[in-house]
Automatic annotation (TrEMBL):
The keyword Iron applies. It comes from the Bacteria. Residues 57-76, 112-143, 144-173, 177-200 form the 4Fe-4S ferredoxin-type domain. Keywords: 4Fe-4S, Iron, Iron-sulfur, Metal-binding, Repeat. Pfam families: Fer4_11 (PF13247), Fer4_4 (PF12800). This is 4Fe-4S ferredoxin-type domain-containing protein. GO terms for molecular function: 4 iron, 4 sulfur cluster binding; metal ion binding. The lineage of its organism: Bacteria, Bacillati, Bacillota, Clostridia, Eubacteriales. CDD domains: DMSOR_beta_like.
């Protein structure tokens, strides 16, 4: 894909939704966009950089900077649940390891070595998790985030099974499902800068700068 196809002055969140949660490998990013994302073109080409489209901006993940410390998971659950638990974290590190070809499939060429890649909810426009819920407990809030109404949730796990990435997780202690609400706790807890959120105004400005430089 040419740079002119990807970085245009009228770039929208909808365009980024098409690649949300996917590696940016194959895309040629401008210097302004690389600076905004805090990565190099070499890292993009290697498939180490991915973005998640959120209502407030882009969640940028740089696998080259992730050490697998799981601080994002810890901060997520401390912030949202008051406990420290990787299992119910809305951002997934532990179960997303690539080892001997296993893992989430986002990265290639990683056999026989550990590669850490934070993974989280894509905030799908047509969420399979919400569609599968028999109680209609997953709805969209005013910010465009898919949230779980714990008063309606019966902990059946249908959302977890329906999600292609199995992101909703039923807490075995509360019997309630939870998923990412884009609170940013994972970003705040990351000590290496592997996670960042870039607001849409900044993304659009960088795209416009790249467009003007063509």
């Amino acid at each position: 894909m040419a740079k002119t196809d990807f970085l245009t002055a009228d770039m929208t969140r909808r365009q980024f939704m098409k690649i949300s949660g996917k590696s940016l490998a194959g895309l040629s990013l401008s210097a302004s966009m690389l600076s905004l994302f805090g990565c190099s073109q070499q890292q993009v080409d290697a498939g180490a950089v991915a973005t998640w489209a959120l209502p407030q901006g882009l969640l940028v993940v740089n696998a080259d900077l992730c050490t697998g410390c799981q601080r994002c998971e810890i901060n997520c659950t401390l912030t949202n649940d008051g406990v420290c638990s990787s299992y119910i974290s809305r951002v997934k590190i532990q179960r997303r390891l690539n080892l001997d070809g296993a893992g989430n499939g986002l990265l290639s060429g990683t056999d026989n070595c550990f590669v850490y890649f934070p993974d989280t909810c894509r905030q799908c426009e047509d969420p399979a998790c919400g569609n599968a819920c028999p109680q209609k407990a997953i709805t969209t809030n005013d910010q465009g985030i898919r949230v779980v109404d714990t008063d309606k949730c019966i902990g059946c796990g249908a959302c977890h099974e329906a999600c292609p990435w199995h992101m909703p997780t039923v807490n075995p202690e509360t019997g309630k499902s939870s998923k990412c609400i884009a609170c940013g706790a994972c970003v705040a807890g990351c000590p290496s800068g592997a996670l960042s959120i870039v607001d849409w105004d900044a993304v659009t400005s960088a795209a416009q700068a790249a467009y003007m430089d063509l």
